[in-house]
Amino acid sequence: MNRNFLAPSPNLARRHRAETAFKWFGRISIFLAVGFLVLMLAIIANMGLGTIRQTNIALEVDLQQSEFDSTNLASADFEGLIKSALRQNFPQVSSRSQKRQLYNLLSIEAPFTLKDFVLENPETIGTRISLWFIASDDVDMYFKGNIAVSPAGNVGRLSKEALEWVKYFEQNNAVKTFFNSRFFLAGDSREPELAGIFSALAGTALSLAVCLIISFLIGILSAIYLEEFVAKNRWSDFVEINISNLAAVPAIVFGLLGLTIFINVFGMPRSSPLVGGLVLALMTLPTIIIAARAALRSVPHSIRHAALGIGATPIQTVFHHVVPLAMPAMLTGAIIGMARALGETAPLLMIGMVAFIVDAPDSILAPATALPVQIFLWADSPERAFIEKASAAIIVLVIFLIVMNLAAILLRQKMQKKF
To answer: pTM for this structure?
Structure first.
């Protein structure tokens, strides 16, 4: 027997080394990708998790009977009562600039908080009450450690003297942090401590609802027609090429299309969830069509042959047998397309959803904004508190994306059990 024939090839060891190196390159690449993702999420979480806490200051307010009209309690000077309560804590404050700094320790929401309390508890009129008020964004950032003390003793826009007043409240146990429910239940505001994401979430939900209804129905029916019924010719090839090309078109192009067609030609209301949903539907249609066609191809041809063999028509075969089996994968593609639409900002900017919206939209025709656009607006603000709000909104957006992708994975697993 030839010993050279049984000897290992001189290139075998080199091939094994190359294969081992390739495996390690893959592992290192995955490790780096996961590491950068974790680092990014950690940085965002570190910047935004402070939003769930809101600094409040307790203040004793003298609700003098003479300040209220018994026939109209709401007409009282609640702002004056707040200012008077602040001056009572610091009687040495006399100049106009000092008073302005003192009043700025509390949010502009303080008079409305006091007003709501008095209207709900009119029996407290004529007494002295202690109530918690939302602190200004500068005070909030100071207690969260997000603003460093300058060499001159200032903290952001808080002067050295104002910082002493804040420390006075802290020493008297009049400073406390509460859960910031306003961030989830309020709309946008010019004041960072009062801004929330509720109106943006409502606009996003309405836009995605319009997008889902239109893109899912049209996308699924288009995929069924192109895959199951259309004749394979030059026209069908042309359509397929254009669908593939549209899937790679930049999102801002769809925004320009929506601005030109839906707003300028059809006169639809600008900055509305209807137009936003239509633009997002145009953007997600190619993705849904491609995914739905792949799902239809995954159904074995034996299913079609068996249905036709027992006398079913082609339409009955498709809608009674093929589509039900392909539906989990179709839903997976739709969810992936919706996840992409959830994070898009550029097309919504083009149709005017960048407007300052405080109240949540009550219909698809009302002015609205979206969560990605809200993040863009806050991130563009120079105030540190708005950067914290933007980071927190990013966390909320990432959670929604994770939930949608988990739903897609579960549907995919269900589809794999079918076959």
So the answer is: 0.84
